[in-house]
């Protein structure tokens, strides 16, 4: 199993974990690929400090460009340190043309996410070496999510909402459950204070996907917290049904 195939599997985020659990048991699997998979597991389990300790140790070693890029991306995903984010951003920007095409999409997505979080970074002249990510529904969706975050931070709530919904439509074409759930969670949360009737359709759809793809990651993404809070804000009796479901899950 080579790195390119692993990247294709990882496109489905946490929902690729059962396959990765099987793949990582292969004794013939490259040690650098095993390292990357282990870092993914740590991030998905929210063990960021442990992941960062391993990443910082590995970044001192001489790795291939592809692995170094993935290490930097994982560090960016795990750290809350703005200065570290800045260092990662500029190193990634510098090495972008040398990163293999199948990883470059992830790198571009990471650069755009960072740029939207920290608009003061010098990003206007960033050269995008490949626009192939726009042909990939999954990466296109995550780019839209980052744009939504920027709109929301600027107070442009409805524009942010529609960016999220556009992303969700792309993810439906790719059957990406994790992304759909994250997107609906964000979209609903963004418009929770608005007088927007469409939110009730979103809530119904959100409940459908939570039920269809119920895994540990769903609870960690505060899905039920979003549902209860929004139903309470809207004074909707469904809040009691959701509270009952959550109570039974906790008891189990």
Task: Provide an overview of this structure.
By secondary structure, the protein is mainly alpha-helical. 71% of the residues lie in helices and 0% in strands. It is built from 14 helices and no strands. Helix 5 runs parallel beside helix 7, helix 7 runs parallel beside helix 8 and helix 10 packs antiparallel against helix 11. The two termini are 38 Å apart. About 2% of the residues have low confidence.
Main features:
252 residues; mainly alpha; 71% helix
Give me the strand/helix succession.
Answer: HHHHHHHHHHHHHH
Radius of gyration: 19 Å
Give average pLDDT, whole number.
83
Shape, principal axes of CA atoms: globular
Q: Helical element count? A: 14
Structural class: mainly alpha
Distance between the termini: 38 Å
Beta strand count:
0
Task: Estimate what percentage of residues fall within beta strands.
Answer: under 5%
Which spans have pLDDT < 50 for at least 5 consecutive residues? Answer: 124-129
Largest sheet: none
Tell me roughly what share of residues is in helical segments. Answer: over 70%
Topology:
Elements: H1 3-10, H2 17-23, H3 31-44, H4 48-59, H5 65-78, H6 82-95, H7 101-117, H8 137-153, H9 157-173, H10 177-190, H11 199-212, H12 216-220, H13 223-233, H14 238-251
Helix pairs in contact: 3-5, 4-5, 5-6, 5-7, 6-7, 7-8, 8-9, 9-10, 10-11, 13-14
Task: State the gist of this model.
With 252 residues, this protein is mostly helical.
């Amino acid at each position: 199993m080579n790195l390119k195939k692993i990247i294709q599997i990882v496109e489905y985020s946490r929902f690729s974990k059962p396959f990765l659990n099987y793949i990582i048991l292969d004794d013939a699997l490259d040690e650098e690929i095993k390292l990357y998979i282990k870092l993914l597991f740590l991030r998905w389990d929210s063990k960021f400090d442990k992941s960062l300790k391993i990443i910082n140790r590995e970044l001192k070693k001489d790795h291939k460009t592809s692995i170094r890029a993935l290490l930097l991306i994982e560090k960016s995903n795990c750290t809350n340190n703005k200065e570290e984010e800045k260092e990662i951003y500029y190193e990634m920007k510098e090495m972008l043309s040398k990163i293999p095409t199948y990883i470059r999409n992830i790198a571009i997505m990471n650069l755009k996410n960072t740029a939207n979080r920290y608009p003061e970074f010098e990003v206007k002249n960033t050269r995008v070496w490949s626009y192939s990510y726009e042909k990939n529904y999954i990466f296109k969706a995550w780019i839209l999510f980052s744009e939504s975050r920027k709109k929301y931070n600027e107070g442009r709530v409805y524009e942010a909402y529609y960016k999220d919904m556009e992303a969700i439509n792309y993810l439906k074409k790719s059957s990406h459950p994790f992304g759909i759930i994250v997107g609906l969670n964000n979209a609903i949360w963004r418009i929770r204070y608005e007088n927007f009737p469409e939110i009730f359709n979103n809530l119904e759809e959100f409940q459908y996907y939570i039920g269809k793809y119920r895994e540990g990651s769903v609870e960690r993404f505060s899905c039920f917290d979003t549902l209860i809070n929004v139903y309470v804000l809207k004074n909707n009796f469904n809040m009691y049904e959701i509270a009952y479901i959550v109570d039974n899950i906790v008891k189990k």
